[in-house]
Design a protein that fits this description.
There is one protein chain. This protein is α+β, with helices and mostly antiparallel strands. It folds into two domains: 191 residues, P-loop containing nucleotide triphosphate hydrolases (Rossmann fold), CATH 3.40.50; 114 residues, Coagulation Factor XIII, Chain A, domain 1 (Distorted Sandwich). 22% of the residues lie in helices and 33% in strands. The chain contains eight helices and 19 strands. The chain has a six-stranded mixed β-sheet, with helices on both faces. Strands 14, 15, 16, 18 and 19 form a five-stranded antiparallel β-sheet that branches. The chain has a four-stranded antiparallel β-sheet with strand order 2-3-1-5. Helix 3 crosses helix 4.
Protein backbone atom coordinates (compact mmCIF):
# COMPACT_ATOMS: atom_id res chain seq x y z
CA UNK A 1 0.00 0.00 0.00
CA UNK A 2 1.30 3.47 -0.93
CA UNK A 3 2.39 5.86 1.78
CA UNK A 4 -0.12 8.73 2.14
CA UNK A 5 1.70 12.05 2.66
CA UNK A 6 -1.27 14.44 2.36
CA UNK A 7 -4.76 13.65 3.60
CA UNK A 8 -7.51 16.28 3.31
CA UNK A 9 -10.94 15.79 4.85
CA UNK A 10 -13.88 18.08 4.02
CA UNK A 11 -11.77 21.21 3.48
CA UNK A 12 -13.68 24.47 3.04
CA UNK A 13 -12.54 28.11 2.98
CA UNK A 14 -14.95 31.01 3.48
CA UNK A 15 -14.02 34.62 2.74
CA UNK A 16 -15.93 37.70 3.73
CA UNK A 17 -16.53 40.16 0.92
CA UNK A 18 -15.82 43.85 1.36
CA UNK A 19 -12.75 43.46 3.58
CA UNK A 20 -9.94 45.66 2.29
CA UNK A 21 -6.62 43.87 2.38
CA UNK A 22 -4.50 44.33 -0.76
CA UNK A 23 -1.13 44.00 0.94
CA UNK A 24 -0.06 47.66 0.75
CA UNK A 25 -1.48 50.88 2.21
CA UNK A 26 -1.54 52.57 -1.21
CA UNK A 27 -3.62 49.79 -2.79
CA UNK A 28 -5.95 49.75 0.23
CA UNK A 29 -6.51 53.52 -0.20
CA UNK A 30 -7.28 53.03 -3.90
CA UNK A 31 -9.83 50.33 -3.03
CA UNK A 32 -11.39 52.46 -0.27
CA UNK A 33 -11.67 55.46 -2.61
CA UNK A 34 -13.30 53.36 -5.33
CA UNK A 35 -15.86 51.96 -2.88
CA UNK A 36 -16.73 55.45 -1.59
CA UNK A 37 -17.19 56.74 -5.15
CA UNK A 38 -19.32 53.76 -6.10
CA UNK A 39 -16.77 52.52 -8.66
CA UNK A 40 -15.36 49.07 -9.29
CA UNK A 41 -12.46 48.08 -7.02
CA UNK A 42 -9.32 48.35 -9.23
CA UNK A 43 -7.73 45.50 -7.24
CA UNK A 44 -10.71 43.16 -7.22
CA UNK A 45 -9.90 39.59 -8.23
CA UNK A 46 -13.24 38.04 -7.38
CA UNK A 47 -14.99 36.45 -10.37
CA UNK A 48 -18.71 36.06 -10.82
CA UNK A 49 -18.39 32.29 -11.17
CA UNK A 50 -16.97 31.78 -7.67
CA UNK A 51 -19.02 29.58 -5.37
CA UNK A 52 -20.93 32.08 -3.27
CA UNK A 53 -22.99 31.58 -0.16
CA UNK A 54 -24.68 34.98 0.06
CA UNK A 55 -24.06 38.59 -0.87
CA UNK A 56 -21.48 39.09 1.90
CA UNK A 57 -19.48 35.84 1.72
CA UNK A 58 -18.14 33.37 -0.79
CA UNK A 59 -16.66 29.91 -0.50
CA UNK A 60 -13.29 29.73 -2.22
CA UNK A 61 -13.27 26.00 -1.39
CA UNK A 62 -16.21 23.82 -0.45
CA UNK A 63 -16.04 20.31 1.04
CA UNK A 64 -12.86 18.97 -0.59
CA UNK A 65 -11.44 15.55 0.37
CA UNK A 66 -8.53 13.64 -1.16
CA UNK A 67 -5.42 11.55 -0.45
CA UNK A 68 -2.01 12.11 -2.08
CA UNK A 69 0.62 9.37 -1.98
CA UNK A 70 4.38 9.74 -1.77
CA UNK A 71 5.91 10.29 -5.20
CA UNK A 72 2.65 11.38 -6.85
CA UNK A 73 2.89 14.22 -9.36
CA UNK A 74 -0.40 16.06 -9.07
CA UNK A 75 -1.53 18.53 -11.73
CA UNK A 76 -4.22 20.87 -10.38
CA UNK A 77 -6.13 22.46 -13.25
CA UNK A 78 -9.23 24.58 -13.72
CA UNK A 79 -10.38 28.02 -14.76
CA UNK A 80 -9.18 31.15 -12.97
CA UNK A 81 -11.18 31.45 -9.77
CA UNK A 82 -11.71 27.70 -9.39
CA UNK A 83 -9.92 27.63 -6.00
CA UNK A 84 -6.55 26.20 -7.04
CA UNK A 85 -4.39 28.83 -5.34
CA UNK A 86 -6.51 28.80 -2.17
CA UNK A 87 -6.04 25.03 -1.92
CA UNK A 88 -2.27 25.35 -2.27
CA UNK A 89 -2.15 28.11 0.35
CA UNK A 90 -3.93 25.82 2.80
CA UNK A 91 -1.57 22.95 1.98
CA UNK A 92 1.39 25.30 2.46
CA UNK A 93 -0.07 26.50 5.79
CA UNK A 94 -0.17 30.09 4.57
CA UNK A 95 -3.84 30.20 5.55
CA UNK A 96 -6.12 27.93 7.57
CA UNK A 97 -9.29 26.21 6.37
CA UNK A 98 -12.64 27.44 7.67
CA UNK A 99 -13.84 23.86 7.95
CA UNK A 100 -12.22 20.44 7.74
CA UNK A 101 -8.71 19.32 8.50
CA UNK A 102 -5.55 18.33 6.71
CA UNK A 103 -2.73 15.98 7.68
CA UNK A 104 0.71 16.35 6.08
CA UNK A 105 3.68 14.04 6.49
CA UNK A 106 7.02 15.72 5.78
CA UNK A 107 8.45 19.16 5.00
CA UNK A 108 6.93 21.38 2.30
CA UNK A 109 8.66 23.80 -0.09
CA UNK A 110 6.26 26.23 -1.78
CA UNK A 111 6.44 28.61 -4.73
CA UNK A 112 3.10 30.35 -4.46
CA UNK A 113 3.96 33.79 -5.86
CA UNK A 114 7.07 35.47 -7.22
CA UNK A 115 9.32 36.35 -4.30
CA UNK A 116 7.28 34.57 -1.64
CA UNK A 117 9.52 33.76 1.33
CA UNK A 118 12.29 36.15 0.27
CA UNK A 119 13.45 39.16 2.24
CA UNK A 120 13.87 41.94 -0.32
CA UNK A 121 16.72 43.58 1.59
CA UNK A 122 18.84 40.41 1.74
CA UNK A 123 21.03 39.14 -1.08
CA UNK A 124 20.24 36.03 -3.07
CA UNK A 125 22.86 34.08 -1.11
CA UNK A 126 21.45 35.22 2.24
CA UNK A 127 17.92 34.27 1.16
CA UNK A 128 19.10 30.74 0.37
CA UNK A 129 20.26 30.37 3.97
CA UNK A 130 17.06 32.01 5.24
CA UNK A 131 14.84 29.58 3.34
CA UNK A 132 16.95 26.62 4.44
CA UNK A 133 16.63 27.69 8.07
CA UNK A 134 12.83 27.98 7.68
CA UNK A 135 12.83 24.35 6.51
CA UNK A 136 14.80 23.37 9.63
CA UNK A 137 18.13 22.75 7.88
CA UNK A 138 21.45 23.38 9.56
CA UNK A 139 24.03 25.71 8.03
CA UNK A 140 26.37 22.89 7.06
CA UNK A 141 23.54 21.17 5.20
CA UNK A 142 22.85 24.35 3.23
CA UNK A 143 26.57 24.80 2.56
CA UNK A 144 26.62 21.44 0.78
CA UNK A 145 23.74 22.48 -1.48
CA UNK A 146 24.80 26.08 -2.10
CA UNK A 147 26.86 25.68 -5.28
CA UNK A 148 24.25 23.38 -6.82
CA UNK A 149 21.48 25.90 -6.12
CA UNK A 150 23.44 28.82 -7.57
CA UNK A 151 24.43 26.88 -10.70
CA UNK A 152 20.86 25.74 -11.32
CA UNK A 153 19.47 29.28 -10.93
CA UNK A 154 21.98 30.64 -13.52
CA UNK A 155 22.25 33.96 -11.69
CA UNK A 156 25.69 33.47 -10.11
CA UNK A 157 26.78 36.98 -11.15
CA UNK A 158 23.95 38.50 -9.11
CA UNK A 159 23.85 36.13 -6.15
CA UNK A 160 25.31 38.76 -3.78
CA UNK A 161 22.91 41.48 -4.95
CA UNK A 162 19.83 42.34 -2.83
CA UNK A 163 16.86 40.53 -4.34
CA UNK A 164 14.81 43.75 -4.44
CA UNK A 165 16.87 44.56 -7.54
CA UNK A 166 16.05 41.26 -9.25
CA UNK A 167 13.69 41.00 -12.20
CA UNK A 168 10.68 38.70 -11.82
CA UNK A 169 12.49 36.10 -13.92
CA UNK A 170 15.53 36.16 -11.63
CA UNK A 171 13.24 35.84 -8.59
CA UNK A 172 11.65 32.73 -10.07
CA UNK A 173 14.97 31.15 -11.03
CA UNK A 174 16.35 31.53 -7.53
CA UNK A 175 13.11 30.65 -5.73
CA UNK A 176 12.68 27.46 -7.73
CA UNK A 177 16.33 26.47 -7.33
CA UNK A 178 16.04 26.89 -3.56
CA UNK A 179 12.74 24.99 -3.29
CA UNK A 180 13.94 22.14 -5.52
CA UNK A 181 17.33 21.57 -3.93
CA UNK A 182 16.73 22.02 -0.21
CA UNK A 183 15.60 19.02 1.82
CA UNK A 184 11.81 19.00 1.53
CA UNK A 185 9.48 16.07 0.98
CA UNK A 186 6.72 17.91 -0.90
CA UNK A 187 7.18 20.58 -3.60
CA UNK A 188 4.31 22.94 -4.42
CA UNK A 189 4.48 25.26 -7.47
CA UNK A 190 1.65 27.64 -8.35
CA UNK A 191 1.98 29.11 -11.87
CA UNK A 192 5.16 31.00 -11.01
CA UNK A 193 7.16 29.22 -13.70
CA UNK A 194 5.10 31.10 -16.29
CA UNK A 195 7.25 34.15 -15.51
CA UNK A 196 10.50 32.40 -16.51
CA UNK A 197 11.78 31.91 -20.05
CA UNK A 198 10.95 28.77 -22.04
CA UNK A 199 14.39 27.15 -21.56
CA UNK A 200 14.19 27.53 -17.76
CA UNK A 201 10.61 26.22 -17.69
CA UNK A 202 11.75 23.03 -19.43
CA UNK A 203 14.70 22.76 -17.05
CA UNK A 204 12.44 23.24 -14.02
CA UNK A 205 9.90 20.65 -15.21
CA UNK A 206 12.72 18.18 -15.80
CA UNK A 207 13.98 18.82 -12.27
CA UNK A 208 10.53 18.29 -10.75
CA UNK A 209 10.16 15.08 -12.70
CA UNK A 210 13.53 13.89 -11.38
CA UNK A 211 12.60 14.82 -7.80
CA UNK A 212 9.48 12.69 -8.02
CA UNK A 213 10.64 9.66 -10.00
CA UNK A 214 14.25 9.61 -8.81
CA UNK A 215 13.98 10.83 -5.22
CA UNK A 216 10.40 9.91 -4.34
CA UNK A 217 9.28 13.45 -3.59
CA UNK A 218 5.67 14.52 -4.03
CA UNK A 219 4.93 17.38 -6.46
CA UNK A 220 1.81 19.53 -6.69
CA UNK A 221 1.79 21.70 -9.81
CA UNK A 222 -0.69 24.39 -10.89
CA UNK A 223 -0.35 25.75 -14.42
CA UNK A 224 -2.45 26.83 -17.40
CA UNK A 225 0.21 25.31 -19.66
CA UNK A 226 -1.44 21.96 -20.34
CA UNK A 227 1.60 20.71 -22.22
CA UNK A 228 3.76 21.17 -19.13
CA UNK A 229 1.13 19.62 -16.86
CA UNK A 230 0.78 16.60 -19.14
CA UNK A 231 4.56 16.19 -19.37
CA UNK A 232 5.16 16.32 -15.61
CA UNK A 233 2.08 14.98 -13.83
CA UNK A 234 0.54 11.53 -13.59
CA UNK A 235 -2.65 12.44 -11.70
CA UNK A 236 -5.00 15.38 -12.28
CA UNK A 237 -7.32 17.29 -9.97
CA UNK A 238 -9.94 19.18 -12.02
CA UNK A 239 -11.36 22.05 -9.95
CA UNK A 240 -14.49 24.05 -10.61
CA UNK A 241 -16.17 26.70 -8.44
CA UNK A 242 -14.29 25.74 -5.29
CA UNK A 243 -14.83 22.00 -5.61
CA UNK A 244 -12.85 19.09 -7.03
CA UNK A 245 -14.86 17.95 -10.04
CA UNK A 246 -12.75 14.86 -10.74
CA UNK A 247 -9.53 13.06 -9.76
CA UNK A 248 -8.14 10.79 -12.46
CA UNK A 249 -5.09 10.10 -14.66
CA UNK A 250 -3.80 13.37 -16.08
CA UNK A 251 -4.77 12.78 -19.73
CA UNK A 252 -8.42 12.15 -18.87
CA UNK A 253 -8.44 15.13 -16.52
CA UNK A 254 -7.12 17.48 -19.24
CA UNK A 255 -9.62 16.10 -21.76
CA UNK A 256 -12.48 16.76 -19.31
CA UNK A 257 -11.19 20.29 -18.72
CA UNK A 258 -11.17 21.12 -22.43
CA UNK A 259 -14.59 19.59 -23.03
CA UNK A 260 -16.20 21.59 -20.19
CA UNK A 261 -14.28 24.85 -20.60
CA UNK A 262 -16.55 27.35 -22.32
CA UNK A 263 -14.92 30.71 -22.94
CA UNK A 264 -16.84 33.99 -23.19
CA UNK A 265 -17.60 35.59 -26.56
CA UNK A 266 -18.59 38.97 -25.14
CA UNK A 267 -16.51 42.13 -24.86
CA UNK A 268 -17.64 42.78 -21.27
CA UNK A 269 -14.54 42.59 -19.08
CA UNK A 270 -16.12 43.81 -15.86
CA UNK A 271 -16.29 40.38 -14.20
CA UNK A 272 -13.25 38.71 -15.75
CA UNK A 273 -10.46 37.36 -13.55
CA UNK A 274 -7.11 39.11 -13.83
CA UNK A 275 -3.85 37.20 -13.66
CA UNK A 276 -1.81 37.37 -10.48
CA UNK A 277 0.68 40.16 -9.85
CA UNK A 278 -1.01 42.80 -12.04
CA UNK A 279 -0.14 46.27 -10.78
CA UNK A 280 -3.39 47.68 -12.34
CA UNK A 281 -1.87 51.15 -12.57
CA UNK A 282 -3.80 51.13 -15.83
CA UNK A 283 -6.70 48.81 -16.59
CA UNK A 284 -8.37 47.37 -19.69
CA UNK A 285 -12.04 48.32 -19.46
CA UNK A 286 -13.25 47.11 -22.88
CA UNK A 287 -12.00 45.41 -26.01
CA UNK A 288 -13.14 44.84 -29.57
CA UNK A 289 -12.16 42.29 -32.19
CA UNK A 290 -13.00 43.93 -35.52
CA UNK A 291 -13.36 42.07 -38.82
CA UNK A 292 -15.23 42.95 -42.01
CA UNK A 293 -18.22 40.97 -40.66
CA UNK A 294 -18.46 43.22 -37.60
CA UNK A 295 -17.31 43.56 -33.98
CA UNK A 296 -16.91 40.55 -31.65
CA UNK A 297 -18.79 38.19 -33.95
CA UNK A 298 -16.86 35.15 -32.69
CA UNK A 299 -15.60 34.48 -36.22
CA UNK A 300 -12.18 35.43 -37.66
CA UNK A 301 -11.31 34.33 -41.17
CA UNK A 302 -7.72 33.20 -41.55
CA UNK A 303 -6.89 35.21 -44.68
CA UNK A 304 -8.66 38.47 -43.78
CA UNK A 305 -7.56 41.53 -41.82
CA UNK A 306 -8.44 41.71 -38.13
CA UNK A 307 -8.00 44.57 -35.64
CA UNK A 308 -7.81 44.07 -31.88
CA UNK A 309 -8.76 47.24 -30.01
CA UNK A 310 -8.37 47.87 -26.27
CA UNK A 311 -9.98 50.68 -24.28
CA UNK A 312 -7.62 51.43 -21.38
CA UNK A 313 -8.12 53.63 -18.33
CA UNK A 314 -4.95 54.92 -16.67
CA UNK A 315 -5.19 55.72 -12.97
CA UNK A 316 -1.69 57.19 -12.75
CA UNK A 317 0.55 59.56 -14.66
CA UNK A 318 3.49 58.35 -16.74
CA UNK A 319 2.48 54.71 -17.00
CA UNK A 320 4.72 53.21 -19.67
CA UNK A 321 3.21 50.09 -21.19
CA UNK A 322 2.99 47.95 -24.28
CA UNK A 323 -0.06 46.17 -25.70
CA UNK A 324 -0.01 42.38 -25.56
CA UNK A 325 -2.30 39.69 -27.00
CA UNK A 326 -1.95 35.90 -26.98
CA UNK A 327 -3.91 33.61 -29.26
CA UNK A 328 -4.21 30.09 -27.82
CA UNK A 329 -5.61 26.67 -28.76
CA UNK A 330 -6.27 24.13 -25.98
CA UNK A 331 -4.34 26.31 -23.48
CA UNK A 332 -1.24 26.37 -25.71
CA UNK A 333 -0.10 29.81 -26.87
CA UNK A 334 0.11 29.81 -30.67
CA UNK A 335 0.68 33.49 -31.51
CA UNK A 336 2.07 36.31 -29.38
CA UNK A 337 1.33 39.89 -30.41
CA UNK A 338 3.40 42.24 -28.25
CA UNK A 339 4.21 45.84 -29.10
CA UNK A 340 6.97 46.06 -26.48
CA UNK A 341 8.82 42.76 -26.84
CA UNK A 342 8.43 42.35 -30.60
CA UNK A 343 8.24 45.89 -31.98
CA UNK A 344 10.01 47.75 -29.15
CA UNK A 345 7.02 50.08 -29.06
CA UNK A 346 5.56 51.26 -25.75
CA UNK A 347 3.10 54.02 -24.86
CA UNK A 348 3.23 56.60 -22.08
CA UNK A 349 -0.18 57.02 -20.44
CA UNK A 350 -1.22 59.94 -18.27
CA UNK A 351 -4.44 59.84 -16.27
CA UNK A 352 -7.31 59.27 -18.69
CA UNK A 353 -8.85 56.85 -21.16
CA UNK A 354 -6.95 55.57 -24.19
CA UNK A 355 -7.63 53.45 -27.25
CA UNK A 356 -4.93 50.97 -28.29
CA UNK A 357 -5.11 48.81 -31.39
CA UNK A 358 -3.19 46.07 -33.13
CA UNK A 359 -3.88 45.42 -36.83
CA UNK A 360 -3.13 42.01 -38.32
CA UNK A 361 -3.08 41.69 -42.11
CA UNK A 362 -4.08 38.00 -41.90
CA UNK A 363 -4.08 35.77 -38.86
CA UNK A 364 -2.80 32.74 -40.78
CA UNK A 365 -4.16 30.00 -38.49
CA UNK A 366 -5.85 26.83 -39.68
CA UNK A 367 -9.55 26.31 -38.97
CA UNK A 368 -10.39 25.56 -35.36
CA UNK A 369 -11.43 27.10 -32.02
CA UNK A 370 -9.14 29.59 -30.31
CA UNK A 371 -9.05 32.00 -27.38
CA UNK A 372 -7.61 35.49 -27.07
CA UNK A 373 -5.88 36.82 -23.94
CA UNK A 374 -5.25 40.57 -23.68
CA UNK A 375 -2.87 42.54 -21.50
CA UNK A 376 -0.66 45.54 -20.82
CA UNK A 377 2.95 45.18 -19.78
CA UNK A 378 6.32 46.86 -19.45
CA UNK A 379 8.71 44.45 -21.18
CA UNK A 380 10.71 42.52 -18.59
CA UNK A 381 9.61 44.77 -15.72
CA UNK A 382 5.91 44.90 -14.88
CA UNK A 383 2.59 43.26 -15.71
CA UNK A 384 0.20 46.21 -15.66
CA UNK A 385 -2.95 44.23 -16.55
CA UNK A 386 -3.64 40.79 -18.00
CA UNK A 387 -6.95 39.03 -18.73
CA UNK A 388 -6.49 35.39 -19.80
CA UNK A 389 -9.08 33.86 -22.15
CA UNK A 390 -10.93 37.14 -22.62
CA UNK A 391 -12.53 36.14 -25.92
CA UNK A 392 -13.36 32.93 -27.76
CA UNK A 393 -13.46 32.78 -31.54
CA UNK A 394 -13.60 30.30 -34.40
CA UNK A 395 -11.66 30.21 -37.65
CA UNK A 396 -13.98 28.47 -40.15
CA UNK A 397 -12.88 25.87 -42.66
CA UNK A 398 -11.35 27.29 -45.84
CA UNK A 399 -9.82 26.00 -49.07
CA UNK A 400 -7.85 28.92 -50.58
CA UNK A 401 -6.60 26.96 -53.61
CA UNK A 402 -9.92 25.18 -54.31
CA UNK A 403 -7.93 21.95 -54.06
CA UNK A 404 -10.60 20.00 -52.24
CA UNK A 405 -8.78 20.10 -48.88
CA UNK A 406 -10.23 22.26 -46.11
CA UNK A 407 -7.38 23.62 -43.97
CA UNK A 408 -7.92 22.79 -40.30
CA UNK A 409 -5.87 22.00 -37.19
CA UNK A 410 -4.44 18.50 -37.49
CA UNK A 411 -1.53 16.76 -35.82
CA UNK A 412 0.05 16.07 -39.21
CA UNK A 413 -0.63 19.51 -40.70
CA UNK A 414 0.15 21.82 -37.81
CA UNK A 415 -1.78 24.97 -36.94
CA UNK A 416 -0.26 27.84 -38.88
CA UNK A 417 -0.54 28.92 -42.52
CA UNK A 418 1.91 31.83 -43.05
CA UNK A 419 2.11 34.03 -46.15
CA UNK A 420 4.04 32.02 -48.73
CA UNK A 421 5.09 31.92 -52.37
CA UNK A 422 6.73 29.25 -54.51
CA UNK A 423 8.90 29.07 -57.60
CA UNK A 424 10.55 26.47 -59.77
CA UNK A 425 13.45 27.40 -62.07
CA UNK A 426 15.28 25.01 -64.36
CA UNK A 427 18.99 25.12 -63.60
CA UNK A 428 20.40 22.79 -66.28
CA UNK A 429 19.69 19.92 -68.65
CA UNK A 430 20.23 16.33 -67.60
CA UNK A 431 23.66 14.98 -68.35
CA UNK A 432 23.79 12.59 -71.36
CA UNK A 433 26.96 10.88 -70.14
CA UNK A 434 26.73 7.18 -69.28
Amino acid sequence: MSDIVIKAEHLSKLYRLGTINNGTLWKDLQTWTAIKLGKEDPHSKIGEDRFSGDSDHFWALKDISFDINQGDRIGIIGKNGAGKSTLLKILSRVTSPTEGNIKIKGKISSLLEVGTGFNAELTGRENIYLNGAILGMKKRQIDRKLDEIINFSEIEHHIDTPVKRYSSGMYVRLAFAVAAHLDSDILIADEVLAVGDVAFQKKAIGKMNDLSTGQGRTVLFVSHNMGAVKQLCNIGFLMEKGRIKSIQPIKGCIDDYFSSNVLPTTNSIKNFIRSKNCSLRAKIIQFEVITKEGINTGIIRSTEKVTIKLIVESYNDSVITGMQCYISHNEQNMIMLDSGHIKNKTFTLERGIYEMSCEIASIGLYAGNYSLSVGLNIPGKEVVDNIPDAYRFEIPLYDPANAGFNLHIDSSWGIYNPEQDYSCVKKSDLSTEV
